[in-house]
Amino acid sequence: MLDAKEPKPPYILEYHPYSEYALLIQWPQIVSENILEDLSAFKKVLQNNYPDAILTAAYASILAVFPERITSFPFLKAQIKKDYELFSEEKIKEHLDPKDQSKKIKNTIKKAKNTIKTIPAQKILYKIPVCYEASFAPDLEAVCTQLKLSPEALISKHSKATYTVYGIGFLPGFMYLGGLDSKLEIPRKSSPRMKVPSGSVGLAAKQTGIYPCESPGGWQLIGQTPIPLFNPLQDPPFFAQVGDKIQFTPISKDAYKLLQIQVAAGIYKIEKTIYTKP
Amino acid sequence: MIKVIKAGLYTSIQDLGRSPLQPIGVPMGGAMDRESAQNANALLENEPNAAVLEITMTGPVLTFTENAWVAFSGAIFPIYIDQNTASTNTPIWVKAGQELRFGTLEKGVRLYMAIKGGFLNEPLLGSRSMQAHLSPIIKLEKGMELQHRSGEKDQAIILEKKSNTPLGAKKILAFQGPEFKYLNPEQQEGLNQQTFKVSNLNNRMAYQLLPSLSAFEKNQITGPVLPGTVQITPSGNVMVLMREAQTTGGYPRILQLTQESINALAQLKTGDSFRIKILPLN
């Protein structure tokens, strides 16, 4: 949903020389689906134009790290600024029906003729099976009491939503997922656990997330997935990108065990579809 | 191969890390003092990314079962091969059956030991670096066997080459971070004039500095960070992210250390003091 104060695209980007090798590109610093969408699509353009750069995206920023020292930040900034202008013009062109195009926009499009090829900003929806039964959900009961929800209501709200990957960090493959039902917002545990098992699904404030490996952690644990999220022995080791979508599918204890066997046998494949806006 | 008789305080195998995997949350990792690790490799004409041993504070005891060229660079320890002393920054020929051990650390923190052709532990995600939450083993353990190619005495080596990393640096150089501008003038001044100390909270992920600055509350959205990023917590704690830091952070990023200064900080230990000099980056 568009906030009244939320700026609209094309956004005013800020460029901050970050290190000898890195430039930080910042969108307006707001948690917004629209900003994330614009950023994810532009990231593809950047990757195409600067194939050697490592681009790390999170919420409303992209950090571009280059293999060589950056010799001129003003030059690099000017180049990327131009890339963004062309990208934004292309985006306007795509989103407008020709008969609705005003003269001004037509002119802009004309100017943008020899531009970058449009790269479709396709997003993938991944479905992650989660068992919410007590033995996999050490905090579920306490969370339900605190939120005044029945376990069924909590599970239904948690698995109905479609979440957006706003960032990947904290641990290899740990996704910051936005889009949590406001009735499920709960603070972190007052004292974190020393060991959260791999695959644990947790709640923390406005976010939900999955621990990709065993680690200390303070999130409220309401379920567990049997599927390995991050596998360093696989290429690629991780499936999702910033901007992708995640849904949780409730499964029984028996289904959990079956999936575990499938994973161990190497025949499990994560369920994915092309995401289309509802 | 090399047998680990004693592991030392924190000895691990490191190369230059896994930078291409930052976008999926994998820390860069790799040698804390990259310059010294690369210097040790250069002495043996290894690739800069060849895997070396990172020896921290207390050295291991190692037995060689094959001949090998090795080279040391970085911190200063007395180094013994059987009864003989060995020097840093020059290649050393070790014979099968000889034992390598270290005396008490004299200066710096981390010493790098390269071996001709590099250590040959199994690479994981494009790197041989041992790393928390990723590698099955994150540091050397007693009884481990380290694989390498058997050495030939006439292999190409370089006689002498020094690491450019200072040991006991008094000045750490940094650029302004994206949130530096939100610090109040007193805090900005403090960063420039304060003498900082390395607190006892320091490891491959981060160094916390003392003293803290005044409290700093800023609503901040999670964003990307790098090794060398200096963050300030709401209570004013100053944290320098090191090589194994996570890839995103939610605290204001007030400074970014230069590459050389990350190496220099990796050679400072608890209680060492220094000042920060802020440089322009344009």
- Provide the succession of SSEs of chain A: EEHEEHHEHHEEEEEEEEHE
Low-confidence stretches of chain A: 112-116
Query: How many strands, which pairing sense, and closed or not: the largest β-sheet of chain A?
Result: 5 strands, mixed
The number of helical segments of chain B is 3
> How many distinct helices of chain A?
6
Quaternary structure annotation:
heterodimer
Largest binding interface between chains: A-B, 45 and 31 residues
What is the rounded distance between the termini of chain A?
13 Å
Fraction of helical residues of chain A? 25-40%
Explain what the structure shows:
The complex is a heterodimer of chains A (278) and B (282). Chain A is α+β, with helices and mostly antiparallel strands. Chain A has helices at 33-49, 73-95, 103-111, 140-147, 151-160, 253-265; strands at 14-19, 22-26, 54-58, 61-65, 124-131, 163-168, 175-178, 193-196, 200-204, 207-210, 215-217, 220-224, 245-251, 271-274. In chain A, the strands form four sheets. Chain A has a five-stranded mixed beta sheet with strand order 7-6-13-5-14. Chain A has a four-stranded antiparallel beta sheet with strand order 1-2-4-3, covered by helices on one side. The longest helix of chain A has 23 residues, at 73-95. Chain A starts with 13 loop residues before the first strand and ends with a strand. Chain B is mainly β and 282 residues long. Chain B is built from three helices and 20 strands. Chain B starts with a strand and ends with a strand. The mean pLDDT of chain B is 95. Classes of the chains: A alpha+beta (278), B mainly beta (282). At the A-B interface, strand 1, strand 2, strand 3, strand 4 and strand 6 of A face strand 15 and strand 18 of B.
